[in-house]
Specification:
The protein has 263 residues and is mostly helical. It is built from 13 helices and no strands. It has helices at 3-19, 22-46, 53-74, 79-89, 91-96, 102-133, 139-165, 167-170, 174-187, 199-206, 210-213, 215-222, 226-260. The longest helix has 35 residues, at 226-260. The relative contact order is 0.13.
Length: 263
């Protein structure tokens, strides 16, 4: 079997393995729905002063924005914690000796897990988006969000792999993860679209990659545009490619750290 075939087999095995963990999936679905419920109430309260049809439409649109951004975030596996655990326990030394790349196998496993979670959460996002907003969005807008959202989720997955590999030097990658997470939440526009930010903060956020990961896909549900979706998907695909090169470079550097340390 070729290397690509082996990675595909790993992703497929991870997909079916995670599917058997029904309690974890149900818990994630419940948490996803609770997030949507809480913030749909927040948006209704914010726009309560606007009794006009325009105000109600804005509240509904922002509920759908949250459906998309939280779908991307909550589909992510904790790949950084798995890699950190391997490094701290020493298991990574044995896995690096395998004919397949360690980080490549981890990414393949993460892709299988990610696609399962995105597939499971998507119908609940659609159902609750309709329930909490009181309206559907166009099928075209949903298709664009789904396409770009999957690529954005892959960018996040690769970034989590990179954070986990920092454990070769830091041993505890949680500080790096927390900084990345907070920047993503704020500058990515997880819960509040960047269009509502002050001008200076919005301009800063749009110059950083975080906005493309969350705000970009979420904005498509508010203002669907095939041209913008294509540009965003290509930009995100570029980040995926750059991220993969970085994590493979980190793997090689980490291997040297183990060799110098006698691991």
């Amino acid at each position: 079997m070729s290397a690509h075939g082996k990675y595909l087999a790993i992703a497929r095995a991870a997909f079916w393995h995670r599917l058997s963990e029904r309690a974890a999936l149900i818990g994630r679905i419940v948490f996803y729905c609770l997030i949507l419920l809480v913030f749909s109430c927040v948006w209704r309260t914010i726009f309560a002063a606007h009794a006009s049809a325009e105000g109600r439409s804005a509240a509904s649109s922002y509920v759908w924005y949250l459906v998309v951004t939280e779908w991307i975030m909550l589909s992510q596996p904790s790949l950084h914690l798995e890699i950190e655990s391997d490094v701290r326990s020493g298991d990574v030394a044995y896995q690096l000796a395998r004919p397949l790349s360690y980080v490549g196998a981890k990414l393949a496993e993460g892709v299988g897990d990610l696609f399962l979670r995105m597939t499971i959460l998507a119908p609940f996002g659609l159902l609750y988006g309709r329930l909490f907003s009181g309206q559907w969005v166009g099928a075209g807008a949903l298709a664009l969000c789904a396409l770009v959202g999957v690529v954005a989720a892959l960018v996040l997955l690769v970034s989590y792999a990179g954070i986990g590999l920092c454990a070769f030097w830091l041993h505890d990658c949680m500080p790096v993860y927390l900084v990345w997470q907070k920047l993503l939440f704020v500058l990515g526009g997880l819960m509040v679209p960047l269009s509502l930010y002050p001008e200076w903060l919005r301009a800063l956020a749009l110059r950083l990659p975080f906005a493309s990961i969350l705000y970009g896909p979420g904005q498509l549900v508010l203002h669907p545009s095939p041209e913008h979706a294509l540009r965003l998907a290509l930009e995100l695909a570029g980040w995926v490619g750059a991220g993969v090169l970085i994590v493979f470079g980190l793997e090689r550097a980490g291997r040297r750290v183990l060799e110098l340390g006698g691991g």
